[in-house]
Structures are given as C-alpha cells and as structure tokens.
C-alpha cells in the first residue's frame, strides 16, 4: 500500500535466543504493590486495578543513555516486571491468561513525578508525566517457555550501586492473570502488547549521570544511564 509518507518503523525488543518482539501497545498498572501505594498517599485495597498507557515509541533499549526529559525536575524510577503477550483477546478468563504470555522482561516506568502530581491535583490526564519519549526502558524478553510462569522472584533497583527498591513479585496486589483478565474486559488485547505490572516501594529521583540497574530473578538485568 502507498501512504502519504513513510510510516514510522515498528518498535521491537530483543528476545533471548529468538527473533525480536514487535511492540503494539504498552499498558501499565497503577499502584500494584501496597507499600508503593502507601508512599504515593493512597490506600492499597482490592478496589479494581487502574491502567494507563505509554506509546510503543517510548521503549528505550537496554544499556542506552536516557536523555533527561524536558519539563521536569523530578524524574523518578519505577522498576517493573513486564509481561509480553503473543496472544490477544477479549474477556480472557483467569485460568487461560497465562497462555497469552509470550515472555517476561525487566522494565522501567520512568515518571515525571512533579508533572504527575500536578495532573493528579488538577484532575488532568497523566500522559505527559508517563508517556513521554524514552519513558519505557526495557531489557530483552525471556520467553515463558524458558522461565515458566512467573509468580514470585526478587525485584530490585539500584542507583549508582545503592539499593533503592527491593521487593518480591509475589507482593503484587493484582496477580498477572488477574491483570490480563481485568484489562481484557476494558480493551481487546493483541499480540505485541506489553503490560508493565506496577512498581514496589522505594521510587525516587534520578539525575544526570546516574546509572540505574534493575533486576528480576532469572531475567536479563536492565542498565540505563541518565544523560
Ligand atoms: Mn509504574
């Protein structure tokens, strides 16, 4: 087909021992660890999970330099387990949800916290605080065939070698099958969708020159420098 101009290229993420994963949409779960919800000033109950999105173009590859973004003086890190889907659907039942997972990766939901707080206070959208350029660093995806279904494992983030976030994926309020089940009731999911499953407590600011190292047991570590 001819277009008025060349379409932007498909964004992809490397996959361990396989072809790259083409990214469609990026969904993010808000406040999915109780201690993080508390540090954000919210109650962490079992009320329905909420979602926001980032564009696929926000993906930043592993070992890259993330340019310090404009319009903020409070850029914060959020380490998250990323779930990559290879099978879509609507109303995906809980007991089938894991079959939709292609693999897992370590990701960062980079956030302009000052911009987000202002938006929250004014009842405005989060997009510019969450979905800005390079806001979704992501390491290589490890296929679920190799990891098995992930339900637990240490999730950690260090800045310049100092531990800032340390928890276990098992501490998620909404487990991965529940997230897929719930999200697929709101929107139809497709192969290529990524889900950032929320961050544990300990989020904080980074500045130019900081090196972020994010790890989850069994997955490729994610290392990003703020430039
Ligand atoms: Mn997050």
Descriptive report:
The protein is an alpha+beta fold and 227 residues long. The chain has a single domain, classed as Fumarylacetoacetase-like, C-terminal domain (Fumarylacetoacetate hydrolase, domain 2), CATH 3.90.850.10. 15% of the residues lie in helices and 33% in strands. The protein has helices at residues 34-39, 113-122, 127-130, 144-147, 176-186; strands at residues 12-15, 18-22, 26-29, 51-54, 59-61, 65-66, 75-77, 79-85, 101-108, 111-112, 136-138, 142-143, 154-159, 162-168, 194-196, 204-205, 211-216, 222-226. A six-stranded mixed β-sheet has the order 4-3-15-8-9-12. It has a five-stranded mixed β-sheet with strand order 6-18-17-13-14, with no helix packed on it. The protein is globular and about 40 Å long. The N and C termini lie far apart (39 Å). The chain binds manganese (II) ion. Manganese (II) ion is lined by residues 28, 78, 80, 109, 196, 198-199.
Q: Summarize the amount of helix as a percent range.
A: 10-25%
Number of domains: 1
Largest sheet: 6 strands, mixed
**What is the global morphology?**
globular
Strand order of the largest sheet: 4-3-15-8-9-12
Counting helices, strands and paired strands, the structural category is alpha+beta
* Strand runs, count: 18
Q: Supply the number of helical segments.
A: 5
Distance between the amino and carboxyl termini: 39 Å
**Quaternary structure classification:** single chain
Query: What is the CATH third-level topology name?
Result: Fumarylacetoacetate hydrolase, domain 2
- Overall mean pLDDT score? 96
Q: At CATH's second level, what is the architecture?
A: Alpha-Beta Complex
The parts where pLDDT drops under 50 for at least 5 residues are none
Run of helices and strands: EEEHEEEEEEEHHEEHEEHEEEE
Strand content: 25-35%
What's the gyration radius in Å? 17 Å
Identify the bound ligands: manganese (II) ion
Output the CATH class name: Alpha Beta
The CATH homologous superfamily name equals Fumarylacetoacetase-like, C-terminal domain
